[in-house]
Amino acid sequence: MFRRACPSRHLIQVTVDAETVNVEAGDTVAAALLALGKDACRTTPVTGSPRGPYCMMGVCFDCLVRIDGKANQQGCMVLVKPGMRIELQHGANALVDVLSAGRVRGTSPGNC
Amino acid sequence: MATQHTFDVAILGAGPAGMSAACSATALGLSTVVLDEQHSPGGQIYRAIETSPLTDRSILGKDYWHGASLVDNFARSGAIYEPRTTIWGLTPPQADSHWQIGVSRDGAASFVDARHVVLATGAQERPMPIPGWTLPGVLGAGAAQILLKSSGLVPSGRVVVAGSGPLLFLLITQLARAGARIARVLDTTPRGRLRTTLRHWGAFALSPYAAKGLRLALEACAKAKFERHVDAIEAAGSTHLEAVRYRTGGRERSVAADTLLLHQGIVPNINLAAAAGCTVQWDAQQASFRPRVDAFGASSIYGLSIAGDAAGIGGARMAEAQGRLAAFHAAYVLGRLNAAEFKQRTQEAKRELAHWSRGRAFVDAMYCPSGTFTIPDDRTIICRCEEVTAGAVRKAIRMGCQGPNQLKSFLRCGMGLCQGRFCGLTVNALFAHERNIVPEQVGYYRLRFPIKPLTLGELAALPQTLQSVQAVVRLPASYTVPAAS
């Protein structure tokens, strides 16, 4: 749970899972979700456990959300924009969704 | 973004090291580009310094606002600033080419060319694996500081802060000044550290950090209830943090909590340097890996310098001096300074560096993490991405797993999106502990490009060269590379 320690400057509207909400312009998507009281933004592909932002600086990849239809975006690296569609992610992407959306999940290099 | 132009210097990162390197490089007439993953200059230490909604300057303190002059100078330097630019690749010069930096911006990949590269990619928090650290409601202390600086957000409800180190005191005071109520601080600094660090006291007392450190520690202790010598911590809850259990002096305690902030120091961000092929070595004093650099920041690869915390933790003011040294070195290598001019210019930066490096040995020795916080118990998840526990890693080691790289094939440990950034040091410590060998014998994950996820679409859209096509298909002798569309 987070609250704002300073007055709001400029609110804009976005949708989170199709619900219209007001968020602070200048916030990242991850910060906006935390300010809305949503501290979990996805469930993990491996065990389905809830996960929320951890590092807020682009390192941990725990704050992944779907933004304007594009999956696996780092919420802490993207600023909110008016009309932005933010969706929480549940587990792994189904392959059929990926193919029908015409895009492939961001790949990790699979070093070994 | 420019792809045809070759810059004299490309600086990766716009924290104190990157910004000061850019100012010095442009002052010497070098064409300079600064590639930064963030939205505005400042790095993590001076994060959001131009845009922070916190109007009360006392909350973040005057050391934070020192960054404003740095950002001003940087803005006037004439360096080209490219924000929101993720760096995923770095290729050393081939026969007739220059450094090629693979970047991604707004979903499109491209290359930036430069004669000399300065890595100023800073640090990340050292992983602090405890049972339950993947629960929503548990965040890095650095994350709370970023939320405060960028958005003026403070954790509400019952806040527990756990760990060790000077930044922990700083965060506690900043959060308290911003109105957060901290229910408890779990200080994990082991018993007896003041005694074992005796030989470093003199240098620390004379350092520029002593007075500030003491003031912060006293303020933090006055603002929150401290539990000392905590040697085990667990975050408990089903879908969200509900309580923090901990042990101190053999007694187990529990405290209800909505937010738990973890911190046990920061470590260099080595992925880019290691993937580029720089020699990376174990630093016993800082208990972390770092690229090997000389007094001017030159790495083991010609034409690649590393400045600031990316080459070993020293803090923002050391990073500024290191940025200048790296820029002077680049100017010397590129023939913009002769030997005498180089020597003269570096002298002052070296003095500055010596001044701000004083007292570091005390901080490193005092707050070096130990016990379960580096070698967690079996049920603790250590690889957050692939959800691999310490128990699974121990089992693999006992079955004969040879090292961190083979562990990837066994367990996928370190193969998730963060690419080992949050498990690498723990895996190293587990191998060292199980085998009773030193960390440098264990080594670290082999790191490769792309060091940040890149979609196949972005990769495929990159301009092709004859070599890149030959790498994947056998071509007829008559083949020519198609022009980029």
Task: Please sum up the structure shown.
The complex is a heterodimer of chains A (about 110) and B (about 475). Chain A has about 110 residues and is α/β, with parallel strands linked by helices.
Please tell me about this protein's structure.
Chain A is of the alpha/beta class. Chain A has helices at residues 29-35, 95-101; strands spanning 2-4, 11-16, 19-24, 42-43, 50-51, 64-67, 70-74, 85-87, 89-90. Chain A has one domain (11-101): Ubiquitin-like (UB roll), CATH 3.10.20. Chain A is built from two helices and nine strands. In chain A, 38% of the residues are buried. Residues 102-112 of chain A have low confidence and may be disordered. The model of chain B has no long low-confidence stretch (mean pLDDT 95). Chain B is of the alpha/beta class and 485 residues long. In chain B, strands 1, 2, 3, 4, 5, 6 and 20 form a seven-stranded mixed β-sheet that branches. Chains A and B meet through β1, α1 and β5 of A and β8, α3, β9 and α13 of B.
Keywords, separated by commas or semicolons:
heterodimer, A: alpha/beta, Ubiquitin-like (UB roll), five-stranded mixed β-sheet, three-stranded mixed β-sheet, 2 helices, B: alpha/beta, FAD/NAD(P)-binding domain, 3 domains, five-stranded parallel β-sheet
